[in-house]
Amino acid sequence: MHFFERVLQPPTYGWKDDSGELIKPSGAQILKEFFSRLNIFGDKKNWLPFLSWIKILCLIPFFFIFLIYFLEWWTVLAAFVYSMIIMGTHGTIWHHRYCTHGAYTFRNKYWRFFTQNLTINVIPEEIYVISHHVHHSLSDKPGDPYNAQAGFLYCFLADVNHQPIAKDLSEAEFKRVQQLMEHTGVKSNTYTQYQYWGSYVNPKGAILSWLLNWAFWYAAFYLIGGHALACTLFGAAGFWGVGVRTFNYEGHGKGDDKKKAGTDYNQKDNSINQLWPGFVAGEWHNNHHLYPKSARSGFKPHQLDLAWYYIKMMHTLGAVKNYKCFKKQFYTYHYLPSKAKS
C-alpha cells in the first residue's frame, strides 16, 4: 500500500468497497463518525480535530455579538474583507502554497512566523497539510479525504472524519510525516509522544500558539477599533472557518465533471477554476492541480491572484528567498496549444 493510502486514519465506513469503488456513506453514518471522532473522553487521540472545532465554537459567539451589537456599514465591510479576502488569501499563502506544496521558501524563521500569524489562527497545519498531499495523490479517487463524489457532508466534515493522520503509523511512516511538516516550523512530537497523542503536533504547543495568536489579534483589533472591530473580525474569522469547509466540494464540481474547454486545462480530475475563489483568495483550483508546486496559480491576465502578489512582494523585500512559478509552462504546454486548436 502506498504511503498516501496509509497515512490518514480511515473512517469506520471505509474508503472503498471490495471492488475498489468509492464508499458513499449516508448522512447518518457521516454524523455518527463525526461525533465519535470528537469524543476526547472515549479516546484522547481525538484531541486535534476536537480542538479545531472548539476554535470554531469559540468564534461563533463573536459573530452573533457582531450581528446584535455592532452591525454598521463599516463593520459589515470589515467583516467581508477580512473573511472573504484576508482569511481566504492567507489560507492560500500559508497552508496551501507554503506548508503543503513548498512553492516558495522564506529567508529566515522570522518571516515564516510572521506569515504564519498574519491572521487569526483557525485551521491546524497538521490536519490541512498531510491530508492535502493525499488529496493530490488520490484526487477524486477512493481515499481522497474530501472526495466530492461522496457528497457535500462528506467534504464539509472531512477535517474530523477523513483528514487526521492514522494512529498506528510505524516509526518510519511517522518520520515521513515529520519530513512533510518540518519546514512549517510546527514542532513535532517524538514517535513515543505520537503513540500517546496520535498526532504530529503536541497539545501543549498547539494550545499555547492558539491562545497567544488570539490574544495578540484581539488586542491589536481593540486598539484600532475597540470591541466593535475586534468582535467583528473574530466573528468574520468564524464565518470563514465554516465556509472554507465547503470549498473542495464546489472546487471539484460537486462530484461531477464540470470542466470547461479553454478554462480548465488539467484533465486528470474534476478540479475547476472558479471566479469567486480565484478573485478573493487566488484559488484557481484547476490551474493549481495542473501545477501544484507553483507559487502562482492565476496564470491568465484576468486571473487575479492576491496570494501570489503577497509572495512576490515578500520576495522583492527579501523576506522570501525563492519561489516557483509555472506561468511560462502553462502558456507553452496548455494555453497556446489549446488556442491553436480552437
Automatic annotation (TrEMBL):
What is the topology of this protein in the membrane according to its UniProt annotation?
A: Multi-pass membrane protein
Q: Where located?
A: Membrane
> TM spans, by residue?
47-70, 76-94, 214-240
Keyword annotations from UniProtKB, A to Z: Fatty acid biosynthesis, Fatty acid metabolism, Iron, Lipid biosynthesis, Lipid metabolism, Membrane, Oxidoreductase, Transmembrane, Transmembrane helix
Query: Is-annotated flag, keyword Oxidoreductase?
Result: yes
EC main group: oxidoreductase
Any GO molecular function: oxidoreductase activity
Q: Does the keyword NAD apply?
A: no
Query: Which named protein is this?
Result: Fatty acid desaturase
Q: Which organism is it from?
A: Pedobacter helvus
Query: Species lineage, top-down?
Result: Bacteria, Pseudomonadati, Bacteroidota, Sphingobacteriia, Sphingobacteriales
